[in-house]
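Below is a concrete protein record.
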Amino acid sequence: NIYNTFEDEIIPAFYERNDAGIPEKWVQYMKNTIQKIAPEFTMHRMLNDYQQKFYNKLIERSDKLRDNDFEQVRLLSSWKRKMLRGWDSIEIVNVNLPDSSKRPLRLGEKFTAEIIVNVNELSASDIGIEVLFGNKVNDEVKTPTAIEEMNVAGIDGNIVSFFIELPTTQGGVFDYAIRMFPKHPLLP
């Protein structure tokens, strides 16, 4: 773990000094780190990442929306009107979540959750449900460390079952929150 790394490697390297008072192992460690990491932090790479993450996706979306005389814009607009009419009619039928207030999840245990929703006039593909993992402040996960979307596990008319099972892969104390959102392939 991190404490052993500090105790066995970092602290001895920092405090072991030569006759001139220079921590040679520590300096070499820093040089190696800079040599390995610095090429990853170039302006060219940062701009390329930004272009891939934002601009290219926006251009693709814009092209899709303009195709066939803006047919996708009309479909998206119609979907948004449907969502405005039907969003408030969504009902949570059943929630099966681990109670993290009684016992936190341990590293390696599975986080399992199921939420059953009556979508009424909407469809299962119109909504998504996500689990946000992170530290809770005032009953809200402020800065999620991981976000995982739940899968549709079953549909029976208007009743949709969402399910997720994940192993806990990070140590530490964390909690979770659930959020539901409108879902459409053309939303950014």
